[in-house]
Write a structure and sequence with these properties.
This protein is mainly α. It folds into 2 domains: about 70 residues, no CATH class; about 90 residues, no CATH class. About 80% of the residues lie in helices and about 0% in strands. Helix 6 packs across helix 7 and helix 7 runs parallel beside helix 9. It is globular. It starts with a helix and ends with a helix.
Length: about 170
């Protein structure tokens, strides 16, 4: 993950501000807030500013995913090449559903918040959307998960990685 983040930083450095780099990385699937905070630590972005940029960047796509993913999937399913993508994503959601079902609302919070491979706000939104979970509860759970991820990744990015870099 750090290699990808470094490549993005190197591609954008000098073109846009370091704050915008952090924001852009936080918007991206797979990298999300976690990658944004690592980038912020590498770029020496002030902690509070980095946190705000990462949280906002990570939350912006979530309402759109929750509202429109099923509609986008129904269009994609009409075409053979994109149907395979839909099936793959739905299978990914089905694989993660038991983790969330076991604890309900708090399962979704933990799924989004605990930084493990394949988890995060994008995947949590995918699961919530595919299984038509309540929009407001899903949005709240994902937001709380992003806050939890921020707390955990702050310790890692500004603690562990921050001490290695400096």
């Amino acid at each position: 993950m750090v290699n990808i983040i470094s490549q993005i930083i190197n591609s954008l450095k000098g073109v846009v501000s370091k704050e915008l780099i952090v924001f852009i990385i936080s918007l991206m699937p797979l990298l999300e807030l976690r990658g944004g905070l690592i980038a912020a630590a590498i770029l020496n972005v002030e902690y509070l500013k980095a946190g705000i940029l990462c949280i906002i960047g990570n939350i912006i796509p979530i309402p759109l995913i929750l509202l429109f993913l099923k509609k986008v999937f129904s269009v994609m399913e009409r075409f053979k090449p994109t149907k395979k993508v839909v099936v793959w994503l739905e299978d990914k959601a089905k694989k993660n559903k038991p983790k969330i079902d076991k604890y309900g609302f708090w399962g979704l919070v933990l799924f989004v918040g605990i930084p493990l491979p394949g988890t995060g706000a994008w995947t949590g939104s995918l699961v919530a959307s595919v299984f038509e979970m309540d929009y407001k509860k899903s949005l709240l759970a994902i937001f709380l998960g992003i806050i939890l991820a921020f707390i955990i990744m702050s310790i890692v990015s500004y603690g562990v990685i921050g001490n290695i870099i400096r």
